[in-house]
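Notebook p. 47: complex prediction with cobalamin.
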Amino acid sequence: MIGLLGRKIKKVVIIEPKSADRQVYGLFKIPRGVVLLATILKTLGYEVKVYCEDFAQIDWDDVLSADVVCLSLLTATAKRGYAVAKEVRVREIRAGAPYKPIIMGGVHPTFATEEALVNSADFVVRHEGDKTLPELLEAIEGKRELESVLGIAFFRDNQVIKTAERPFLTNEELDELPFPDKTLVVNWEEITTDLVITSRGCPFNCNFCSVTAMFGRKFRIRSVKRVLDELEVLSVNAGGKRIVVFIGDDNFTAKEKRAVEIGDGIIERGLNLSMIIQARTNTSEATLAALKRAGVGRVCVGLESVSDEALKESNKRQEVKDIINFIERCDRVGVKIHGMFVSGFDNDTPRTIRGIVKFAKKYRRILETIQITILTPFPGTILYDLMVSGGDIVFHDWDLYNTHTVVHLPKKMKPSELQRETYLAMKRFYSVYGIFISLLKLNKTSIVISLFGWTEARRWRWGKGFRSHMRILRRMERRGLFTQNVLPDTTS
Ligand code: B12
Ligand code: SF4
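Predicted complex, structure tokens below:
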């Protein structure tokens, strides 16, 4: 540790590794908080470069010329991140380059801190990194005591030292953050959609979600003016051309009045935006209408299930009737829905999963696109603790935590059934018939999405990951390894 401190830092490389297997999310070229972190460091005078492995190959010479290497990890990208960190070590030894501190941050290292430290991280930054990372760099440069930096972890004398947690940024502090400068990302021209985050945290506490553990239950917000300024810069940079912006807030309409003010401001400033937001089903019709006027064409909603039992189990605080009311509101206003469903709750059976497709097809006109992902116990969530104590986790390999792969023991069906039925459900929704209907409607977006859904659902089926996982699940089932926890299906 001592040898790591007191060195001059000029250049920092930040890497967002990709997931292990080819998966549909890798096609969305949207970097997360790394762009903001890079911009913060740039304003402090560091030379910074960001590699998002989904669309830029790591240039190892560039990495070796940096003074510090940062890695941003989700659970699904953790193992790849550890491999990259190891590669940094191997390459610097081979090149005779000086040992460079490796800093890991993001949602996975926040909750699997010790794991990150034994996988080549010299430091882990827990929770928000906006203030922690600059302070940690100062400590590495010897300008302050390491222990004075809140929210970090490191090894000392074979012990993990965790400094006290850093309070979450206040609304005022969020407003002081610079606008993310995407040109710091290698191959930034390939970024498909601009990501704008206007708030952090969520007042709800769904048991499968990492957001509240990571960012807290207080809904912290940037001011309307600041958000509009950021959107205006994006619009001006695009020369006024219509651009697609993903408002990545987990619950953008948690404060409806504010959401409407942002919408109205977009119109007043004459910004030409096509926006996608994430919201809950309790969003009112008036808010949806105001946002539609401002350019929100699609809303991504965690519908989660069409079973009230499952909704209750997940602590989602919404019922199927709320989902239907919401769909009807969106229909009246003309906003399309991307419905995000989850399969594999304790009370789910193959019939529940088929019910999702039936439901989604019924409302297809508004529920234009869907995703059915498999319930996944991410570290830090309530679900993770429940499954660990219940002995329900079967696979601890993070590469499988991509929400496409069964890693737990469902209670009312076999794991292979959950895997297969989820795949079949996606295939049924994204069928040739669906493509035909969108062709009839002559709706370009709908045609593109249907074709995309059709190919992806099938590609996933024939991908290496799906087939080998199905084989493993079936082999384990044949050996009777799963039977002890499986409850009978009482719904038939
Ligand atoms: C935009 C987004 C996406 C986009 C783009 C993702 C991408 N490039 O990977 C899309 C839609 C494609 C997507 C896909 C997926 N996502 Co996503 N996504 C988000 C979302 C909504 C916003 C991300 C964001 O910008 N946050 C705001 C910034 C400021 O936060 P941040 O990136 O975490 O960075 C801060 C800190 O973490 C920290 N930090 C982060 N990295 C580092 C690195 C260093 C060195 C330091 C010091 C600090 C630091 O400092 C930053 C500033 O404070 C988050 C929810 C959320 N609120 O974060 C979910 C989230 C990250 N996604 C999640 C998941 C599960 C997925 C998927 C597996 C699929 C799915 N079912 O949603 C895929 C996997 C993608 C992949 N790469 O493999 C989970 C991750 C849980 C986990 N434990 O891994 C989250 C937390 C949502 C949730 N409900 O739990 N996602
Ligand atoms: S799933 Fe959505 S509503 Fe539930 S805690 Fe996460 S962000 Fe909040």
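Notes: Residues 19, 25, 28, 30-34, 36-37, 70-72, 74-77, 103-108, 125, 128-130, 133, 195, 197, 209-211, 215, 248, 250, 373, 378, 402-403 surround cobalamin (ligand 1) (CB under 6 Å). Residues 193-478 form a domain with the pyruvate-formate lyase- activating enzyme fold (CATH 3.80.30.20).
Next step: compare against the earlier run before touching the bench.
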